[in-house]
Design brief:
Blueprint lengths: L2 E5 L3 H13 L3 E5 L2 H11 L3 E5 L1 E2 L2 E2 H11 L5 E5 L4 H9 L8 E4 L2
Parallel strand pairs: 1-2, 1-3, 3-6, 6-7
Antiparallel strand pairs: 4-5
Length: 107
């Protein structure tokens, strides 16, 4: 079964999105911080990572970098409720040698 790691510091977001992911037939791992996500990435080797960009103990870019260091081919989707043109420019400027990096602004 495909394992999806969902990373967000807001429990309401995790609860709602993880329910959707599970209803779609995927295994959903969750983390409420970048540090927790790093541990899960190393221990569970998720197939896909969905991460918020802004979290108290770090950000989604740190999660992205940690995941790509372990598996350059892992798809990572970064979402935010605080999007801007400068955010989009920062995200799309990151080199992704093995695929496309997608930034999604969810309002």
């Amino acid at each position: 079964m495909t394992k999806i790691l969902l990373v967000d510091d807001e429990i309401e977001i995790i609860e709602g999105r993880s329910k959707i992911i599970k209803n779609l037939g995927y295994d959903c791992l969750t983390a409420q911080s970048g540090n927790e996500a790093d541990k899960i990435i190393k221990e569970e080797s998720p197939d896909i990572i969905l991460t918020d960009i802004k979290m108290p103990d770090g950000d989604g870019l740190a999660v992205l970098n940690a995941a790509k260091d372990l598996d350059p081919d892992i798809p990572v989707i970064v979402f935010t409720g605080h999007g801007s043109r400068s955010f989009a420019a920062l995200i799309t400027a990151r080199p992704t040698p093995t695929g496309i990096f997608i930034s999604v602004n969810i309002i």
